[in-house]
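Render DUF2071 domain-containing protein in 3D.
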Amino acid sequence: MVVERPVMFQTWRDLTFLHWRYPATAVQELLPPGLTVDTHDGDAWVGLVPFVMAGIRAPYVPALPWLSRFPETNVRTYVIGPDGRAGIWFFSLDAARLAPVVVARLTYSLPYVWSDMSVRVDGPTQHYLCRRHRTPDQRCDATVRVGPPIPEPSPLEEFLTARHRLYSVRSGRMVAADAEHGPWPLRRGELLDLDQNLLEAGGLPAPVGDPLVHASAGVLVRVSGWREVSSGS
């Protein structure tokens, strides 16, 4: 994936990927027309991904220190768009800065939510806290221990993390944007503690069982603008 004319540069840092299996039908009924749930071995997957967004800037513009770095947490699933391309659908994206939340909702039509958040890294242990300002009972508190590197991702790990396209709906039309970045430097992870209901707040059934856990130091990202997509485009 190459983004020749990026409209934004970002760095995603100190990520944790938590993934649960879901029945494909349960996820499909939450998707807008035009998107089909992408499955692996017959199951859909839903991810809870807390991390630090850093270095946000437009081309030829320096990053502003306060506005360009903040925690973020997204709830997402994996889809096939009307153009036949694999990508991501976001149920929610929590962010700790109000201005980027407003801009992202207006320009990218993504379901951003302003939240009180923090990310703390203590050696191999990463702590994530999230409380939504308007609905503080909706939360995500997670503690993860980062483990050894994964030299060769499995097909499932590729399916869950090698995603370079996101879909949204703007003015009733399906649109897509691309995110160019190198391969994730993936590591094993161990979930030490989790208290969350962001998945349920997005309309999903409560997850069952322990999630798959992966971690990454992060990647540099080039993001394209939106373009309308349709069958065969």
